[in-house]
Amino acid sequence: MEGCSVFKIEETSIKEIHQAFAQGKLTARKLVDFYLHQIETLNPLLRGIIEVNPEAQNLADEANRNRVNSTETGSFLGELHGIPVLLKDTFGTKDELNTTAGSYALLGSQVPRDAGVVEKLRKAGAIILGKASMSEWYKFRSLSGVPNGWCARSGQGVNPYCPSGSPCGSSSGCAISVTANMAAVSLGTETHCSIICPADHNSVVGLKPTVGLTSRAGIIPMTPLWDTVGTFPCYSGLYAGMLQMQFTCLIVIVGSDPRDEVTAETAKYIPEGGYKQFLVEDGLKGKRIGIVRHPFVEMIHGALEKSAFEHHLDLLRQEGAILVDNLSIPHIEEIMDSNHSGEALVMMVEFKSSINAYLKELVTSPVRSLADIIAFNERNSELEKLAEFDQHTFIEAEKTDGYGEEEKKVVEKLKNFSQNGFEKMMNHHELDAMVVPGSRASPVFAIGGYPVITIPAGYESDGMPFGICFGGLKGSEPKLIEIAYAFEQSSKVRRPPSVI
Q1: 194 located within any domain
Q2: Pfam families given for it (predicted)?
Q3: What local confidence, expressed as pLDDT, does residue 290 receive?
Q4: Domain of 413: which CATH number?
Q5: Catalytic residue among 13, 166, 170, 177
Q6: Which of 88, 120, 131, 276 is catalytic?
Q7: 308 is in which domain, residue-wise?
């Protein structure tokens, strides 16, 4: 760890890391070694990481050599050159790392190529540090039976603030790892609250972009209709670093990918000049922000979270935001119940067809279909802990047979709910965002493919974190960034976890 005392890695940003590189205060190897030391020290307790890239140090040494060469030639280095990035265990990597969704069923499988966003990360100079733990199979094999943050390969992920509390999921390991300084930045996925809930529960910034803004190609699928790739930046005591890290990474991974056709439609949302330009201190001034109290505010159980939410609303007003209170979203009760709305049915149909297609494309794999996964789990109940956790949802998904009339009607209904509900409310009141306590509005944002940013907002008496969430219409990331950054700068409530 020699040299790290000169530059405090835990409280910095990508910009400052690059400055330290240029000034000789830090090298990519020292940075990687710092995170490897953190992982060795903390991961046995937190179980946020499944495996570390055995080539991480060699990649760091290569990054150092490239930096020396670029200094001599004046050539440009990528935005993430020498920055260690942790990936959820669903991102395909053509290297020695496994890609298993936390399950032994895919251990030893080989992907044909890097996932689309992984290609972009490598091109930008990022070092793939390892694979983060997660709620196994997106917690989809049994929606009611498997705890958040549990997977067979790494065990139960632990919340660094409140070990008895939930780390949430499915991108649990991503949030655990960055909040505990085991990685500079991590990439996760969300279908239905899998980024914003772990971010909320682990006191870190989480971004779920507009569906299609980031490529899903080469990532183990869940529900392609709603899947998206987002980011978790590490904590910075300077506050500016957390969001700067976030959007430096975002501009690297957005963009069209021929292997994910949806990305061509959403490329129009990418701002010229990237996202860092929206990190402005007066970003709340004049912003119109809506508040839907039923049912989201009514769902708050913690006394400290309830008072903090009202305090933060006052803070938004003080910073120049215009709050439009007591709004409503039609059919909200049905939207909030995934079984009643049909969202769960769509997930099962899409999961079966998409996971079968993914498995068939693998170079080698112990399983080639959802039916194979179910059979593997039955044969290896001790390995997969199925004596304790069932696979009811997998079995129900296997019974589906693509999109029939019922499933098509559900998709159309959910589309109408979004257009005539959230979108109509946003447009009618000319809102820039909707503010919500915690991740409670995730069904609204999920079925519409809308972007969301969650920011740390406080802690309950037992240390359990809670956040505040800003969501908007498709492509509204620039406005959300301005709002989130200004809020983070004015609130400054986050503190490091007790484990640190």
Answers
A1: yes
A2: Amidase
A3: 98
A4: 3.90.1300.10
A5: 170
A6: 88
A7: 9-491
